């Protein structure tokens, strides 16, 4: 491998980035995948340029003219509900005149988006509807061809809106593969689901792929989040009801860990942390699920936790609350993270409060888990700077049916990542 004097700036090695030896139960990944600027540049083009990427939830743009803007795959885009058709559109956030950003607020409602630079204006379908001093252009310019550019592909599944910059990518349902089963569980349990207003945004000084691994890693929970488990026990939670669970590859790089919930779930598993007054409410929620979906599916919705990863950068944590989280690489050793909370739209105020409390207690910016995880990932990135060790080992569980504390779900991610990157390096 060729390296500079700084071990964090490794170039692309001549050998493989990922090695798998099924016979000897060994799976390893070169640490240069976490530090190399060249690999970083390649994955922005190959991974983020040729995957379906989560944009937002339809509930965020419920009314005609509602919009949200955010970076997707490192590119500024915005999602808006058409005032004409009611469809959800996703546009490149760039004026077709001279390139300035057109949508300049994070969210709101508008009939027209006007570029502040030269005041070209576009409607919610992206059509160019206003050009100051249009006569100065004469008859040679076809203004009908100068509307906002939609992202190449936009599709929605159960309210989750995805976009892809690759016009030839497979349809979204085919891409999601086995992940649809787990999205269905989340949406069916919530009913008319919505993203609650507000976001949790932060940055981590670590490679984005470390958060992929961390988000579906059951192995780190007990040592890293020991304080949270002690807190639950102090409140009277019986952690012995939790079991190891399973880890699954869902196809196309997606993966999940599913396990019996050792703590309460607002839908619909009571625990002492919720208070005695919540017992009856949660029992009613459980009965409603049984009536709608049958006992076995209701049990799974109520008593099982799921950490669902949708390749390459979406996590749906269906645990003590339902969190939707994306992360975007900024440099090889820095990422930005955005998290939202998903809930039933007509949820009773006391249930909504309980859900938000559960979310903030564990996954909030000052919660028990998020600061621990940030510290762990940044520690890994710092360790990479030491050099001397070429590979990370991700072999746990290869010799048995994968448990939630094993690493098959991470291997699923790395196999797909490697497929895309091999194509970039040929």
TrEMBL record:
Protein name: Rieske 2Fe-2S domain-containing protein
Region (Disordered): 1-21
SUPFAM superfamilies (alphabetical): Bet v1-like, ISP domain
Keyword Metal-binding in record: yes
Database matches in InterPro entries: ARHD_Rieske_2Fe_2S, Rieske_2Fe-2S, Rieske_2Fe-2S_sf, Ring_hydroxy_dOase_asu_C_dom, Rng_hydr_dOase-A
Similarity annotation: Belongs to the bacterial ring-hydroxylating dioxygenase alpha subunit family.
Keyword annotations from UniProtKB, A to Z: 2Fe-2S, Dioxygenase, Iron, Iron-sulfur, Metal-binding, NAD, Oxidoreductase
Composition skew (Polar residues), residue ranges: 1-13
Rieske domain mapped to chain residues: 53-135
Any matching Pfam family: Ring_hydroxyl_A
